[in-house]
Amino acid sequence: MNFNFLSPVSDVVLAHNELLSMQAMGRKLKINSLQNGIPDLEGVSIAIVGVLENRNDVNYIGESFDLNEVRKSFYSLFPGSWNTTIADLGNINAGESVEDTYFALKTTVSILIQKKIIPVILGGSQDLTYAIYRAYDNLIPMVNIVNVDSKFDLGDSTKPIKNTSFVGKIILDQPYNLFNYATLGYQTYFNSQEEIDLMEALYFESYRLGEVSNDITIVEPVMRDANVVSIDMGAIKASEVSLKQRLSPNGLDGKEICAVARYAGISNKVTAFGVFEYKPSYDDEVTAMLIAQMLWYFVEGVNYRVKDDDFINDNNHQKFITLADSQELVFYKSTRTGRWWIEIPFLSNVNNKLKKHTLLPCIHQDYIDACNGKIPDRWYKAYQKNSV
After folding, report:
1. What's the predicted TM-score (pTM) here?
2. Alpha helix (H) ranges present in the chain?
3. In Å, what is the CA distance from 220 to each residue of 21, 97, 216, 301, 378?
């Protein structure tokens, strides 16, 4: 097992762990320690990996950081009635160059996914999402990324990669494996009109902060289609986090970001989950605890996954057909969970990578809208992407 890149969880955290209740999370984890080395991953379904890399942060001035407070907070929580075994594999330290760190992260994530273990990445700067995306190069043909962020992070892809421009690299670097990119909780005034127009032109999805706060359930179908979920702590409003972490008076609150993490966990497709842009400071108990609770809700979601997307057996779903704007739209509703999908027809004259009818997660409201003659926005964007 090639996990040479991983350094053990610090003794400070392990000493703190010894003082916790026997029922606490930290007592139930398989931990990479200096004494015992990498734990046996047999039966593990989630693995925490810290990445101590922040050199591509646009505001980087040479400061280092650690994840000890986040770990202490997470270890101190009590698990639910879960049947999930979690490992903490320690940290990937910053390499000689940032590319070295990317390589280590890409390799580690790829190994874990092949072992059917979900990597939970705790990171420095959010450009690490690029390395996670690249871990899928030889695993699946197309990747869907959801970014929970106040900004799109498209940036100028001709310039070196930064935490504000990594999506541009993902879009333009070969091999081209990105199918959909969705941003949840963006704040318009942090994004140039050019970036907003580019999101539209590429038929990517974007949901403003107001939309998400107004109805948090719109997050669910977007997450249900995601392979990678990347959360930027800058999406959270200033009053919820500590001094160094504050970016904007507006943003998602603690309850909303935990709901978002749970939706990511419930999704059968999500195979990598990351929380980035953590900036520890002296008054930092609150941010560390918020990240710990986000991880808790993600694990909670994973525990409640239900395999409801098997459409081979007709007993598993109901099928509805409706006409909207002279388009025949086909909907499916799971009889197990009540979740909805809409069919995107395959275009035979187009050489796309999908080659089959694709089912796109949606909500009941989309079906109601279609019955009233309104084509759902997600369907339209996915259909256009298939036609390109």
Report:
1. 0.94
2. 11-18, 68-76, 98-114, 128-134, 166-172, 193-201, 209-214, 219-224, 254-266, 285-303, 364-371, 377-387
3. 34, 37, 8, 11, 13
